[in-house]
Amino acid sequence: MTDLFPPFEPDKDPRPRRFNAVPLRVLLPNLVTLLSLCAGLTGIRFAFEGQLGSAIISILAAAIFDGLDGRIARLLKGTSRFGAELDSLADFLSFGVAPALILYIYGLNELRSLGWLTAILFASAAALRLARFNVMIDDPERPQWQKNFFIGIPAPAGALTGLLPAYLLQLGFAPPPGFAVIEAVYLLFIAFLMISRIPTFAGKTFGSRVPRDWVLPLFVIVIAVTGLLVTYPFQFLAVTTLIYLLLIPFGFRRYRALERTHRNAGVQP
Predict the structure, then answer these.
(1) Is 8 left (phi over 0), alpha (psi -120 to 50) or beta?
(2) Helix (H) or strand (E) holding 221
(3) Predicted confidence pLDDT, tens digits, the chain (269 residues)
(4) Cα–Cα distance list, 230 to 33, 155, 181, 226 (Å)
(5) Under 8 Å CB-to-CB from 98, ≥6 apart: which residues?
(6) Among candidates 68, 4, 17, which has minimal Cα distance to 207?
(7) For 246-253, which contacts have Cβ atoms below 8 Å and span 24 or more sequence positions?
(8) CB 160 within 8 A of CB 236
(9) Could you give phi then psi for residue 188, rounded to 5 degrees?
(10) Contact 23, 77 (CB under 8 A)
(11) Where do the domains of the chain lie, and which CATH numbers do they carry?
């Protein structure tokens, strides 16, 4: 009769495990994602220490890293399911939890439980937005042209636009009585935009092909934008937030126009 439990020595594994080396092109985007996560956590720390300006810059740094990791992954052909999941977790903390805590510490706490509920709703909207984004990525029936648009504003944009009241505080704005209520309503509006079905420009394909005549002007624009951001960071962020919100209707109209065009051409959008 065969022994069902043959003896073995625990220190000697009869089938040693072998780990394949991970290419650097796969590791590098994930390292950038971790930098985004660390920047979001650092923003929370600065908020608790009373350094609102540094907290805002940390969230901005997290958004920059978040914009780079995907592009680096596509450039190096290092995209992976692990990287996508890690990116979603980092985005939830950096663009959902961190902005909600920063705004609660600087203004929403005056509303007590109502202010905390507003912060919870904003963070929850960011989580729902990211979950829907992951599901839409796996949709094989999604037309190619729709990849130039987000459905609802993305989490990084929601975080940076939601921090508009913090920008105003950094610019010396003296909040009038009842400003916390306005801040809560505004933050709920941004949360609604994140979970809405309103299409917005994605900009993922921007920069993949640049006309030769636009190379030098593009360099000048990048240098000018970087100079403004470094010299007048909070003024630049406040103005950019307002411009972004004003451009949402144009993105919606462009999406509908493309949808009608493809429907008339016989392509189901």
Answers:
(1) beta
(2) helix 215-231
(3) 555 555 555 555 556 555 566 677 778 889 999 999 999 999 999 999 999 999 999 999 999 999 898 888 888 887 788 888 899 999 999 999 999 999 999 989 999 999 999 999 999 999 999 998 888 766 666 777 777 788 889 999 999 999 999 999 999 888 888 899 999 999 999 999 999 999 888 866 555 567 778 888 888 998 999 999 999 999 999 999 999 999 999 988 888 888 888 777 765 54
(4) 23, 23, 31, 6
(5) 40, 41, 43, 44, 47, 55, 58, 59, 62, 159
(6) 68
(7) 247/200, 247/201, 248/153, 248/193, 248/198, 248/200, 251/149, 251/199, 251/200, 251/201, 252/198, 252/199, 252/200
(8) no
(9) -65, -35
(10) no
(11) 24-264 (1.20.120.1760)
Signed CA dihedral, 259, 260, 262, 266: sign only: positive
How buried is residue 52: exposed, middle or buried, by Cβ count under 10 Å (0-12/13-18/19+)?
buried
Cα 44 from Cα 40, distance rounded (Å) = 7
Token pair belonging to 157: 């944009």
* 243 contacts: CB under 8 Å, gap ≥ 6: none
Burial class (CB in 10 A: 0-12, 13-18, 19+), 238: buried
Contact partners, residue 68, CB within 8 Å, separation at least 6: 32
Q: Is the dihedral of CA 169, 37, 127, 83 positive or negative?
A: positive
Would you give the DSSP letter of residue 142?
A: S
User: CA 111 to CA 109: how far, in whole Å?
Assistant: 5
Length of the chain: 269
Type of residue found at 11: D
